[in-house]
Amino acid sequence: MIRKAVLPVAGLGTRMLPATKAIPKEMLCLINKPVVQYIVEEAVAAGIRDIIFVVSRGKESLLDHFDLDPELEAELEAKGKEDLLAEVRRTSTLVENLSAVRQKKPLGLGHAILMAAPLVGNEPFGVLLGDDVVDGEEPALGQLIRVAEELRASVIAVERMPREEIHRYGVISGAEVREGLYRIEEVVEKPRPEEAPSDLAILGRYVFFPEIFAYLEKTPPGAGGEIQLTDAVSAMVRDGHPVYALEIKGTRYDTGNPEGFIKATLALALKDPQLGPKVRQFLRAWL
Ligand code: UTP
């Protein structure tokens, strides 16, 4: 049973500056919830009970968001605002066990995950990146967990990307073992379009078995002086560990850049039963 998930949220969020000068990018608001809440809801729906945030300075609001707020609750109760009270309580009870570790310097995603090793211990765990929101019927992490438990191996979420966009992602190649599932042979971080080994781009959901930590420990800094998760995965694959890639059913929005953020806002608003018709009407007037 996979019960723990790591959420690395210690990055600088430079692509969303100046919004992210004083506010973590994961706390930016999509409709009426911060981005991180969509991600935590996905994890909880996938059966996760322990969430370990990897934080840096100034990210306290992320933890506060999922904590109890007795004053606010008392205020809403006194004013008879039952719906809001229920929503606030739901948020603060969403995560059964919430903990945080610090990444003192932004030394990369691989380094951030390594910081969580003492809290994860010797068991498989999920990783959800704080800017990828995945909208779909079944939680993306849940799709990975099912395969990881069946194959007793690490599984990484991927999606097909147009060639002209592939250079922004980690890209895998491998043998298809069944529809949409690949045994990874190669992982390349941000390849040039002509060097990409396939059109299967990694998105921010993973399930790892604990051997990943030993590989992260010996991974030297790579591109940008950061310890790259993809380098550690490559080394694991080279040593013969089975690592799989699963094409996720659902739509991913990268809320870490303005274009992706707007697309996520519009898509979620158009799907919303109350907002949808009004937003559609508003957009029609502009098009
Ligand atoms: P990104 O590169 O997308 O996030 O890292 P970033 O560094 O915050 O954003 P930009 O590129 O400057 O705009 C993917 C995920 O890994 C986390 C980030 O918080 C993000 O969720 N991360 C990245 C860390 O926790 N620590 C790091 O050192 C780097």
UniProtKB/TrEMBL annotation:
Keyword list, A-Z: Nucleotidyltransferase, Transferase
GO molecular function, one term: UTP:glucose-1-phosphate uridylyltransferase activity
Superkingdom of origin: Bacteria
Catalytically driven reaction(s): alpha-D-glucose 1-phosphate + UTP + H(+) = UDP-alpha-D-glucose + diphosphate
UniProt-listed SUPFAM superfamilies: Nucleotide-diphospho-sugar transferases
UniProt entry tagged with the keyword Nucleotidyltransferase: yes
First-tier enzyme category under EC: transferase
GO biological process, one term: UDP-alpha-D-glucose metabolic process
Nucleotidyl transferase domain: residues covered: 5-268
The enzyme's E.C. designation: 2.7.7.9
Pfam family, one: NTP_transferase
Family: Belongs to the UDPGP type 2 family.
Name by which UniProt lists this protein: UTP--glucose-1-phosphate uridylyltransferase
